[in-house]
Design brief:
It contains seven helices and eight strands; from the N terminus they run βαβαβααβααβββαβ. By secondary structure, it is an alpha/beta fold. The protein is globular, with a radius of gyration of 20 Å.
Length: 220
């Protein structure tokens, strides 16, 4: 919810989510969502359905929602098909990227998969990146990120990995796993050791992990 001079505005980011996503269930959850908006006296509701969702403008239009983008949400992304083998994945990368990955490994950068105890570490790395970019962290607090982890990790929907050099985590990425897609959702870097290419190695490992675990798409 966001306040405005006229009243409360609701924003649904990449939702609602239903499984299985049948038309009848999608229609039902849209109706319930609008009912909740009325009960909570929400003046306006902005809905950004999930990627590849069956909750289309036709369904939303039947309930008096119009297609628009008032918040100027960026919809462009980069999708990588990881259904091929690792060798084919590497061959599809630029020569510079392959070089950077080799240099990262040669210099001693390693990848470590994180646990619940590492959420604070990732939040600090993400906050460092946000400060350099002049943005506020989202999720906005370590507590919010912890709650997300507690909810999603029960269903193996969240994965955090770190690039470490000399036993120090210098970069991290937080992936949301849903269906056949791995969303590279948040990243962080303390801007140390750029000549060791920790981010290149981090993304390379994520693509290889997605390939090995039979996912279809990595979404940057």
């Amino acid at each position: 919810l966001r306040g405005s001079p006229l009243g409360k505005i609701g924003y649904v980011s990449k939702g609602p989510v239903v499984a299985p996503e049948t038309q009848s269930l999608a229609e039902l959850i849209v109706i319930q969502m609008l009912d909740q908006a009325k009960k909570n006296k929400i003046l306006g509701l902005i809905i950004q359905p999930p990627d590849d969702s069956q909750i289309t403008s036709d369904i939303l239009g039947r309930h008096h929602l119009i297609q628009s983008n008032p918040m100027e949400v960026v919809e462009t992304t980069l999708l990588v098909d990881v259904r091929k083998d690792k060798e084919a994945l590497d061959k599809g990368m630029t020569r510079k990227t392959r070089r950077n990955v080799r240099l990262a490994k040669k210099s001693g950068v390693i990848i470590r998969e994180g646990t619940e105890e590492d959420i604070s570490l990732f939040f600090n790395l993400m906050s460092d990146t946000c400060k350099r970019q002049g943005e506020k962290p989202n999720p906005p607090s370590e507590e919010a990120l912890q709650q997300l982890w507690l909810t999603c990790s029960k269903h193996n929907c969240l994965r955090v990995t770190f690039a470490e050099y000399n036993h120090e985590a210098v970069a991290g990425v937080l992936n949301i796993v849903f269906g056949t897609k791995v969303n590279m959702w948040k990243k962080g870097w303390n801007f140390k050791y750029p000549d060791h290419y920790p981010n290149d190695l981090l993304f390379h490992e994520t693509l290889h992990w997605a390939c090995a675990n039979k996912f279809a798409i990595c979404d940057f």
